[in-house]
Amino acid sequence: MENIYVNNIIRLMEKDLQSIIRLSESVGWDYDEKEIKTILLSGKIFGHIDQNGTIISSAAIIPYEENLASLGMVIVNPKYRRRGLASSVVKKCLSVVPKGTKILLISTEKGLSLYRKLGFVKVGYVSKYICEQWRDTNRIINCNKNKVVKMEEKHFSDVCVLDRESFGARRSTYLYNRIKQSEKSFVSLDKEGNINGFGLSILGKENLILGPIIANTYEIATLITERLVNGYLGRVRIDVPSGNEEYMSFVESKGFSIINTPPVMILNSKDLPARNQTLYSISAQAFG
Q1: pLDDT tens sequence across 109-129
Q2: Is the dihedral of CA 147, 152, 210, 101 positive or negative?
Q3: Distance of alpha carbon 70 from alpha carbon 47, whole angstroms
């Protein structure tokens, strides 16, 4: 079929919020205004339009520091699939970052073939968990070693350092925007008042989303998780990177079930950036 839309790519802006939401709903995804605004503030979104100016595809690129970026929100309206739109909008995203930039991506199963053709390789996976009702065990949240408190502006620089060591690249712009979006944000302090972990929760359209959760130990990660969920009665989502089996057992004990395990892929590298094994949950698939 001749494709008359493949070159009709525009940069999407805040005025396109409702159109992007409708596009995401066409494939059963639950993006809302706050989530899309955070992506727009942190990166760029591109998409195809049809002859009526309707947005029929999207893809987002979020540049981080240290030669790394994240690709996400790759959507094509089901009526316009198999016309090369996904490939062309992804290539547009790749064209706006410096050549050779490492690109992180969390793929859907349907997208695997496309991303492999573009040169992405699989380097891990995340376990997507959903909990219909958090099982509260009335655990004491603070202990003698660590204290979980609300995040304040004075904590931001130390939070950025923890995030950089955990994720493998500094991403201060994204973190600033994500914290502003968050429903709750906490840090864990040791006896000397040093930050040894932090976590955010995001109230989405369908779920309370937990992440990122970054902590120097498994115990700290569980304390932060419990504080983020404390008092919430709805459905909760958390995406856990591979290699966190003990933490996965913890969330499963709280009522979470695995929905799927999408692969983590990367372009222009064979491995993930160097990480220190303190990333217990990612913020969202669009952010890597």
Answers
A1: 889 999 999 999 999 999 999
A2: negative
A3: 17
Q: How far apart are CA 79 and CA 86, in angstroms?
A: 13
Q: Smallest Cα–Cα separation from 59: which of 45, 79, 39?
A: 45
Supply φ then ψ for residue 246, to 5 degrees.
-65, -40
Query: 72 near 285, Cβ under 8 Å?
Result: yes
* CATH 3.40.630.90 for domain 129-287: yes
Q: Is the pLDDT of residue 153 over 80?
A: yes
Task: Confirm if 282 and 211 have CB atoms less than 8 A apart.
Answer: yes
Task: Find out if CATH 3.40.630.30 is the number for domain 9-123.
Answer: yes
**What was the pLDDT predicted at 161?**
98
**Rounded percentage of the chain residues whose pLDDT exceeds 90:** 89
Same fold, 9-123 and 129-287: yes
- Residue 248 and residue 240: Cα distance in Å, rounded? 7
Compute the distance between CA of residue 259 and CA of residue 63 in angstroms, rounded to an integer.
28
Where are the chain's structural domains? Answer: 9-123, 129-287
Strand ranges in the chain using DSSP code E only, listed in sequence order: 9-12, 44-48, 57-64, 68-76, 102-106, 121-131, 147-150, 184-189, 195-203, 208-215, 236-241, 257-260, 263-267, 279-281
Q: Is this model's pTM higher than 0.70 or not?
A: yes
- Tell me: pLDDT of 1 over 70: no
